[in-house]
Amino acid sequence: MAVVPLDVAARTHVGYVRRHNEDAYLVLPVQGVLAVADGMGGHRAGEQASRIAVDAATGVLMVAQRADRFDDLESLTRVGRALRVANQQVIQAASEDPGRAGMGTTLVVAMFRDERIFFAHAGDSRLYRLREGGLRQLTRDHSLVQQLVDQGVFRDRDEANAAGVGDNVLVRSLGMQGKVEPDVGDALLRAGDLFLLCTDGLAGKVPDGEIEALMNACGERLDELADRLVQAALDAGGSDNVTVVVARPKPVATGSPAS
Cys-Cys link to 54, which of 31, 35, 116, 238 (CB 3.0-4.6 A)? Predict the structure, then answer.
C-alpha cells in the first residue's frame, strides 16, 4: 500500500463578522487525503460551493489512493484531476439552481503517498510546510495582488495593498470558468515535516512569521496548534471565516531533501 497515513487536527470558525461559514474542509488521515476550500457567493451559495468542491475532490483522491502503485507523474495527474472534477461539479450545481448562480470556491488538496506529498490548488487557500523550524509556502496565491507582484508592478503585497489593490480579488478559482488549470506540485517527505492547509482567514490576517512561531511552539500537539492558529486569526480581528488543517505524516521518510 502506497498510502502515507497522517496525524491530523482541523478547526473552522465563522469569525466575528460573517453571518455564515463559507469554508469547508475534509480530512481522511488513514487514507492520507486533505482538502480545504473557501466558498464565494450570495444566499449561502458559497457554503454549498466549498462543500461540493471538497467532497468531489476527495472522492477522486480516494480512488487514487486505492489504486496500485503508480509513478509520480500519475499522482500529479490525479491531484490535478481532482480539482477539475470539483470545478465541473460546482458549475453543474450552479446551473441547476438560479440561487447558486455565480458561486465559486478556492480549493487546496493534498495526497500523501510513496513518501511524497502531491498537491494542487486554485485560488488563495494555501499549503505550508514547516521543516527544521522554517516555514515555506508551497502554493502560490491565484490573486490579483500576487499577480501584480509577480509582474513587478509592486515590490510586495503591502505596497499593492497601499495602492488600493485588495487581497480578495482572485484570478483563478473553481466555478469561474468551464475549465480550470490548477497548479500542481509535489515534495519528498522528511522526518519531522509538518503541513498546514488554511484559508485566507488565517493566511491573509496573520503574518507568516507568527504562523511559523506557533507551529514551532505547538508542533508536537496538533490539537493545541490548530486551536492557537484559529485564535491568532480571531485576535487579528476575525473579519473572515478561518479554517486550518495541520498534519504530520506518520512514517519516517528518508531520502534527499525536497526543493
Answer: 35
Which residue in this structure is represented by grid cell 507551529?
215
Question: How many Å apart are CA 236 and CA 174, to the nearest integer?
Answer: 28
**Of 54, 28, 26, which is closest to residue 39 (Cα–Cα)?**
54
Look at the block and give the residue holding cell 490548488: 121
Amino acid making up residue 218:
C
Q: Is 224 helix (H, G, I), strand (E, B) or coil?
A: helix
Question: Rounded to an integer, what distance in angstroms lies between the CA atom of residue 106 and that of residue 9?
Answer: 21
Rounded Cα gap, residues 62 and 88, in angstroms: 18
Q: Identify whether the C-beta of residue 35 lies closer than 8 Å to the C-beta of residue 111.
A: no
User: Angle, nearest 10°, between helix axes 72-95 and 45-66?
Assistant: 150
Cell of 185: 506540485
Give me the amino acid identity at 6.
Answer: L
The answer to whether the beta carbons of residues 52 and 88 sit under 8 Å apart is no
pLDDT band at 67; cut points 50, 70, 90: confident
Q: By C-alpha distance, which of 246, 244, 253 is closest to 38?
A: 244
Q: How far apart, in whole angstroms, are the C-alpha atoms of residue 160 and residue 137?
A: 20
DSSP state of 191: T
pLDDT digits (tens, 9 = 90+) for 158-200: 776 777 666 778 889 999 888 999 999 999 999 999 999 999 9
Strands, E, within 100-224: which ranges? 104-113, 116-122, 126-131, 134-137, 183-188, 194-198
Is 77 exposed, middle or buried, given 0-12, 13-18 or 19+ CB atoms closer than 10 A? middle
Name the strand (E) or helix (H) holding 249. Answer: strand 242-249
Which residue ranges form the domains of the chain, and what is each CATH number? Answer: 6-139+176-249 (3.60.40.10)
